[in-house]
Specification:
The protein is an alpha+beta fold and about 270 residues long. It folds into 3 domains: about 100 residues, Elongation Factor Tu (Ef-tu), domain 3; about 60 residues, RNA polymerase II/Efflux pump adaptor protein, barrel-sandwich hybrid domain (OB fold (Dihydrolipoamide Acetyltransferase, E2P), Beta Barrel); about 80 residues. It is built from 4 helices and 12 strands. The strands form 2 sheets. It has a 6-stranded antiparallel β-barrel with strand order 1-8-11-10-9-12. Strands 5-4-2-7 form a 4-stranded antiparallel beta sheet, with no helix packed on it. The longest helix has about 40 residues. The radius of gyration is 37 Å and the shape is elongated.
């Protein structure tokens, strides 16, 4: 009787497991080798050619977005800016034409009511108003052009200051003060917050991994512990030769403590096929 009861219990347990496996919420854990990489790597170049005056960072320096990294020699651009600033402040011609227009209007108002003034003189007074208006308009145009030249000079000077487009670290420094630069890169920088994780998974998992899912990341160096990453990209094309597809995850690294380039394990919780 005892043996019969034990057999019945084992059968019931197996039946329960089979029913649980067939339920929609049942999932399995799978893990694959992955690689932790920088979120972005940028080769920073110069928008203008010239001589390097100063490099404010070195390899492994932490940088912030908008931080000045390299400065080019810019004495010519600085002089052009100062000239443009002075020209934009000059309003003498504008004020002169405004004064002459006011005088021409007063003169015209006086002569047009006097019978002793000939029609020719009255016409000349009216014409002087028209000519002065034209000269005033030309002075305004010159003033506007001076302001545009100021903006151009500011932009030209700004090209000599190279700023970082991202926050991260300097991976490589290629130039030093005194070097001539043209089209070659100046620095290589990497964004490491967040990091990205690349993993290749077999084709049978296609459709079972989707953007927004989370996975556990286990770096090869145990001191960094297990982390949680979020799936951001799932390739829509399966590689026919290997019957695999790629998945990219985003791994937060707010304190920038974890280095990129580490191998890791990526654990997914995926639903069983029905």
């Amino acid at each position: 009787m005892l043996i019969l009861r034990i057999s019945q219990s084992i059968c019931l347990s197996l039946s329960s497991l089979l029913l649980l496996a067939a339920s929609p919420g049942w999932a399995e854990t799978v893990e694959y080798d992955g690689l932790i990489e920088p979120y972005a790597v940028v080769e920073i170049g110069s928008p203008a050619e010239g001589i390097v005056a100063n490099v404010t960072v070195d390899r492994s320096s932490s940088i912030k977005k908008g931080q000045v990294l390299v400065e080019l020699e810019a004495s010519v651009e600085q002089a052009a800016l100062e000239k443009a600033q002075a020209m934009a402040r000059f309003n003498g011609e504008l004020r002169l034409q405004e004064a002459q227009l006011a005088f021409a209007k007063r003169a015209h108002d006086r002569v047009r009511t006097l019978d002793a003034i000939s029609i020719h003189d009255k016409d000349r007074a009216a014409t002087e108003i028209s000519l002065t208006k034209s000269r005033l308009e030309k002075a305004k145009e010159n003033n506007m052009l001076a302001k545009l030249e100021l903006k151009k000079a500011q932009a030209m000077l700004a090209r000599s200051t190279i700023k970082s487009p991202i926050s991260g670290v300097v991976v490589e420094r290629y130039v030093s003060p005194g070097e001539y630069v043209n089209i070659q890169p100046l620095l290589r920088v990497a964004q490491i917050d967040p990091l990205r994780v690349e993993v290749i998974v077999p084709a049978p998992l296609f459709g079972r991994i989707s953007p927004g899912m989370t996975a556990t990341i286990v770096p090869e160096l145990p001191e960094y512990g297990e982390r949680t990453a979020t799936v951001t990209i799932v390739d829509r094309v399966i590689d026919s030769s290997s019957s695999t597809f790629g998945v990219r995850l985003e791994l937060p690294n707010a304190e920038q403590q974890m280095p990129s380039g580490l191998k890791c394990l990526v654990r997914f919780e995926v639903k069983l096929n029905q």
